[in-house]
């Protein structure tokens, strides 16, 4: 499956602007709005000069390095003869652009089935002459808003297909099982999140609705669908941050497609719990910085104690003078794995990168996490964007070695802003999906964000929390351990499972009501008790 952007996300702007913005957001494919009198091209005008229109579109797409993959069309007239003329022009343009599918709406409520069947038969016949597929989008307020009516139309009109937009079913209170029978007929897909209480919820922020993205992707794969999914957040519906929601849905879809729809994206425990039987097993590690003084005195003894507590892995923050081979043997003997390492940025540059890769490959570690950057990387917004470019390039370099690179937060990333955006969002909206977002829950809340915003970060960057630092925050007890403060642990853990793509939970404790080794033991016990309730 391919993930595309829709020019309707920028319907208030020119086509040139829309294509540029979608390209800047990382989309390689585009679904072009061809809705008469609105966006972005008028079928009536294309019908007059279809070849010239196609040539202009081709040039614009090439300039923005984005490939057209569908037309989302509105013919803008009730006159059937004029509909046919306009559609023929669109089909000629589609043929010249190698666009395989044109989406059309159906007639309004009150139209008889026989009238609509006859209309669609004539339109499909035209499209077939040009090797183009016509796909109807079952749309609220239209005759095909009922999925059974949509199926009847497809069955009565040979060659007619479906453009699936689950939001129009969701707002009627319908779930996947209510329209699953349409999936074998799908030729294109439009995705955005939506609620279940009518038209006012046809478009809601990612994570605030009830569209079953993961289940739908998986079901589409099962019926052999290999077409495109267009991310269709529309700028004339509501007052949403279009860029933010496009980033979120694009990242989620790439993760779902890669993982056979294994992740969902919903808000709150209730919706997520309803869609799965049991939280998957995510192993728990400890960041050894938590017990750094113990490690300095007796590394092997400390690691043995950690293993005996029930931890499955460790994340390094220094190697205490040991070689990779020595550390690997100790860990193997104790049955511990490596959940990552905190390694300075200088160890990932120049000739040092090769040595760092070799060390960590011997260690059995694939997560190279930068725990801190100096002022030269973070004085201005441009510095942060330069750091994002560095991480993107580094991610490409280590990918061939089977490794991942990421960044770990402290508090300042959530305190300082440029152009109304905090440093964390500047960084992770500018980095590739494979750059790991190692969110430290406690540090983030020390930076002034709420427990709800911690949850929202996981939703905003699906698939990015490959490893996460589980650290407590309490406004009244600075020495609180996991489970004793204000972090919304059930929501955090559930989202890591369903959305984050999390491979390791990593406990970190930096303030101590008890000896450090006792603190990490109690953290693990509390975490296991919370996980047992999920």
Low-confidence stretches: 264-278
Beta-strand percent range: 15-25%
The helix count comes to 21
- Helix fraction by DSSP (H/I, runs of at least 4): 40-55%
The 3D shape can be described as: elongated
Kindly state the number of beta strands: 19
Strand order, largest beta sheet: 1-2-4-5-6-7-8-9
Rg over CA atoms, rounded to whole Å, is: 26 Å
| Major sheet description | 8 strands, parallel, barrel
| Oligomeric state of this protein | single chain
Mean pLDDT: 93
Based on helices, strands and strand pairing, what is the structural class?
Answer: alpha/beta
* N-end to C-end Cα span: 32 Å
Features:
elongated, 534 residues, eight-stranded parallel β-barrel, eight-stranded parallel beta sheet, 19 strands, 21 helices, alpha/beta
């Amino acid at each position: 499956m391919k993930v595309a952007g829709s020019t309707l996300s920028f319907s208030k702007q020119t086509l040139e602007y829309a294509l540029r913005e979608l390209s800047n957001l990382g989309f390689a494919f585009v679904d072009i709005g061809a809705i008469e009198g609105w966006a972005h091209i008028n079928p009536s005008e294309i019908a007059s000069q279809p070849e010239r229109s196609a040539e202009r579109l081709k040039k614009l797409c090439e300039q923005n390095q984005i490939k057209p993959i569908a037309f989302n069309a509105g013919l803008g007239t009730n006159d059937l003869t004029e509909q046919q003329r306009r559609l023929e022009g669109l089909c000629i343009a589609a043929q010249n652009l190698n666009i395989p599918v044109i989406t059309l709406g159906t007639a309004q409520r009150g139209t008889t089935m026989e009238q609509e069947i006859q209309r669609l038969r004539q339109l499909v016949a035209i499209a077939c002459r040009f090797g183009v597929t016509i796909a109807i989008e079952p749309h609220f307020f239209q005759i095909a808003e009922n999925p059974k009516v949509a199926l009847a139309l497809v069955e009565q009109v040979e060659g007619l297909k479906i453009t699936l937009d689950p939001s129009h079913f969701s707002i009627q209170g319908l779930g996947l099982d209510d329209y699953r029978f349409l999936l074998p007929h799908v030729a294109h897909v439009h995705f955005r999140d939506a609620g279940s209480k009518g038209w006012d919820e046809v478009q809601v922020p990612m994570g605030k609705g009830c569209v079953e993205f993961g289940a739908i992707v998986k079901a589409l794969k099962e019926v052999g669908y290999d077409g495109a999914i267009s991310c269709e957040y529309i700028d004339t519906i509501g007052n949403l941050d279009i860029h933010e929601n496009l980033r979120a849905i694009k990242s989620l879809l790439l993760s779902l497609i890669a993982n056979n729809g294994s992740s969902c994206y919903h808000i709150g425990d209730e919706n997520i719990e309803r869609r799965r039987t049991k939280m998957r097993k995510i192993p728990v590690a400890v960041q050894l910085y938590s017990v750094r003084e113990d490690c300095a005195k007796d590394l092997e003894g400390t690691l043995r104690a950690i293993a005996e507590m029930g931890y499955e892995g460790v994340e390094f923050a220094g190697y205490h003078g040991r070689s990779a081979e020595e550390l690997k043997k100790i860990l193997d003997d104790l049955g511990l794995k490596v959940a990552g390492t905190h390694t300075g940025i200088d160890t990932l540059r120049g000739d040092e990168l090769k040595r760092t890769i070799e060390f960590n490959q011997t260690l059995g570690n694939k997560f190279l996490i930068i725990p801190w950057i100096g002022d030269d990387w973070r004085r201005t917004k441009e510095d942060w964007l330069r750091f994002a470019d560095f991480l993107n390039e580094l991610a490409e370099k280590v990918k061939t070695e089977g490794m991942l690179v990421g960044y770990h937060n402290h508090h300042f990333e959530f305190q300082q802003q440029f152009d109304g955006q905090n440093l964390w969002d500047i960084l992770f909206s500018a980095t590739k999906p494979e750059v790991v977002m190692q969110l430290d829950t406690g540090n983030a809340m020390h930076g002034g964000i709420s427990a709800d915003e911690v949850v929202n970060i996981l939703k905003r960057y699906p698939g990015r929390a490959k490893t996460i630092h589980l650290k407590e925050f309490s406004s009244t007890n600075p020495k609180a351990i996991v489970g004793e403060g204000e972090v919304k642990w059930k929501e955090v853990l559930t989202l890591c499972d369903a959305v984050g793509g999390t491979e390791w939970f990593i406990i970190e404790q930096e303030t101590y009501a008890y000896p450090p080794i006792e603190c990490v033991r109690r953290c693990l016990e509390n975490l296991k008790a919370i996980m047992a309730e999920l």
